[in-house]
Design brief:
CATH architecture of the largest domain: 3-Layer(bba) Sandwich
Distance between the termini: 26 Å
CATH superfamily of the largest domain: FAD/NAD(P)-binding domain
Largest sheet: 8 strands, mixed
Helix content: 25-40%
Low-confidence stretches: none
CATH topology of the largest domain: FAD/NAD(P)-binding domain
Mean pLDDT: 95
Bound molecules: adenosine-5'-diphosphate
Structural class: alpha+beta
Length: 447
């Protein structure tokens, strides 16, 4: 018969590539990674924040006090106590070792910052503070290439093959040609569903018409395949929307820009909410504004501090003015109101009084001079629900029984983030569980 591998991994994002590397290093050499798109890396390519992790080698070096239990507590609280505490504990306890593992692979995430929803600096970024995806994906790909693991692009997994209750392979389609691949274990690492609006609205009819930040391969195939093979899908209605998405380009505007001092104003030039609050709340507040959008406004300091802004500018997403008045004219808001908004914000940052919206992070006064704005509104960002798994990454049925031969890791799984994901926790999720699933499967196969 046709092709056969020990392990077939569906998806070449952070979770899939990490699984391939760790399985290989645990002794399984017969591994195939399938990728439906012409390019590898999935949404992980576009991850802009960093990897949250606790008790890490870099936190210790930098004297940052943190604990796995605090990380777990803040993750569960951030998800309004709807996450699976066992999965969360496992993720947090294994986050430090995952940072060290990546470092051994040559992926050094030692610039540590804060995102919304954490009390300690825990978000690990590349040394130069740039977006994590652009370092993580090439680093993982290099490790995959060094191990000569095959990544087959333009190869779309269509269906799981079963023998009785066990999964024994995948049916694929490569450039119009359909064929079967046998596997002792299949790992689904196929990411989310944001680019499949039919599936999004099946679970969340209210998200009709929303743009998405997801790459076009995020079509939710993994959910459908797992469900057809008997797995339970949990919390599928928990689709995270991100508050700062430039709509025409579906471009996510990085959270770090607000962290560096940017504010959100409505079409009247007024602030309306704590910009550093969680994604669900900021998104909801924006939708209540006239027109359902906001202008993210910032000065030259913020522009210079965030590499990403230069890229948004090149793409034509940034509106400029030489002064507050000129910016106000360019974005058609009342100049006096915008000036009053900025003056009030500046006063708070300097007099130490509580901000009227409860913002207590990233309060940095605007300097005189050039002003910038990006028009933003909420967009579909991340499926927090997904395939039910245990800490061995086994795909589970509704009664909690593992499906033989079927594993899942990364965004395609559910239960970790509950109903609100903290920025930086997706990379922690895909790295901890991606590394874990490779080890678990390799251990089972080499026994
Ligand atoms: P994660 O962050 O969980 O690793 P990503 O979105 O980064 O998820 O990566 C998932 C990858 O899986 C994407 O590159 C996507 O194109 C790919 N993918 C999705 N569905 C399929 C499929 N049916 N067959 C092969 N690859 C798939």
């Amino acid at each position: 018969g046709g092709e056969a591998f020990d392990i077939v991994i569906v998806g070449s994002g952070g979770a899939g590539l990490s699984a391939a590397i760790s399985a290989y290093d645990k002794g399984v050499k017969s591994i195939l990674v399938l990728e439906k798109m012409p390019m590898t890396g999935g949404n992980t390519n576009y991850s802009s924040s960093g990897m949250n992790a606790s008790e890490t080698m870099f936190q210790k070096e930098q004297g940052i006090e943190d604990s796995n239990s605090l990380f777990a507590e803040e993750t569960l609280t951030g998800g309004h106590d709807t996450g699976d505490s066992e999965l969360v504990k496992f993720m947090c306890d294994n986050s430090g070792p995952a940072i060290a593992w990546l470092n051994d692979l040559g992926i050094k995430l030692d610039s540590i910052t804060l995102t919304g929803g954490m009390s300690v600096k825990r978000c690990h970024r590349p040394t130069d503070g740039s977006a994590v995806g652009k370092t993580l994906v090439p680093g993982l790909l290099k490790a995959v290439e060094e191990r000569k693991i095959e990544v087959r692009i333009n190869c779309d997994a269509k269906e799981l093959i079963k023998d009785g209750d066990a999964v024994t392979g995948v049916k694929v389609e490569e450039k119009g040609k359909a064929y079967d691949i046998a596997a002792k274990a299949v790992i689904l690492a196929s990411g989310g569903l944001g680019a499949n609006i039919d599936m999004v609205t099946k679970y969340r009819p209210d998200l009709k018409g929303y743009v998405t930040t997801n790459q076009s391969g995020a079509t939710g195939d993994g959910y459908a395949m797992a469900e057809a093979a008997g797995a339970e899908l949990v919390q599928m209605d928990q689709i995270q929307i991100h508050p700062t998405v430039q709509q025409e380009h579906s471009q996510l505007i990085a959270e770090g820009i607000r962290g560096a001092g940017a504010i959100l104003v409505n079409s009247e030039g007024k602030r309306f909410f704590n910009e550093m609050s969680t994604r669900d709340k900021v998104s909801a507040a924006e939708l209540e504004q006239p027109g359902g959008f906001a202008w993210e406004v910032f000065d030259q300091q913020v522009y210079d501090k965030n590499k990403a802004v230069g890229n948004y500018d090149k793409a034509g997403l940034v509106v400029k003015g030489a002064s507050v008045a000129e910016l106000a004219e360019a974005i058609k808001v009342d100049a006096a109101t915008l000036k009053a908004t900025i003056d009030t914000y500046n006063a708070v940052t300097t007099d130490g009084k509580a901000d009227e919206f409860g913002r207590d992070k990233g309060l940095i006064a605007f300097a005189e001079g050039s002003m910038y704005a990006i028009k933003v509104a909420p967009g579909i960002h991340h499926e927090m629900g997904g395939i039910r798994i245990n800490v061995k990454n086994e795909a589970l049925t509704a009664s909690g029984t593992p499906i033989k031969g079927l594993y899942a890791a990364g965004e395609v799984t559910g239960g970790i983030h509950g109903n609100n994901r903290i920025g930086g926790n997706a990379i922690c999720d895909i790295e901890v569980f991606g590394k874990n699933v490779g080890e678990v499967v390799a251990t089972a196969l080499t026994k």
